[in-house]
Amino acid sequence: MASDKAVETKEVTSPYSVLGVSENSSYEEIKRAYQKLLLKFHPDKLDESLSQKDREQACERFLSVDQAWKLLNDQSSKAKCDRNLKEQKLSQDWPVSAEVDLDDMEYHEAMQTYSSDCRCDGEYIISEGDLENGQNIVCCSGCSLSIRVLYNMLSDEEAESEDDGVGGIDNCC
Predict the structure, then answer these.
(1) pTM of the model
(2) Residue limits of the DPH-type MB domain (predicted)?
(3) Helices first, then strands: H and E counts in the chain
(4) Strand order of the sheet with strand 106-108?
């Protein structure tokens, strides 16, 4: 195996790019790409004529391919990765037009969502699940504007003490 440009690539932005597949690829396409790269960069499969430097780069690539597969093979970690990539794209593709504190948004208990009105008469809607998964950029339902929702994640202990009313205003009445 001669010097390969893919071996020289050290920094990649997503597990999809590590495996050379698109974010819309099927599970089978991702698996085939992983298997192909696994055979290409596995330390036991490398050409013996490679220099030590090329061997080290191939091993680094092998590890990044393996890590990418572990992320994309597991449905939960793949979903989290997809959300993070979507958020990165949102922040790059659509500039954030405003920052809104979560406390200033209206809470809808039945749907477990927060909403805020947009100047176009559309709405910004974000679910509790999105917030728990670290997503904080929301597009308007009626136009191309987006906002960043500002909030603090509570630890489980903090959430329990808040629910119990310990130290809160609710306890005094």
Answers:
(1) 0.48
(2) 96-152
(3) 7, 6
(4) 106-108, 113-117, 123-127
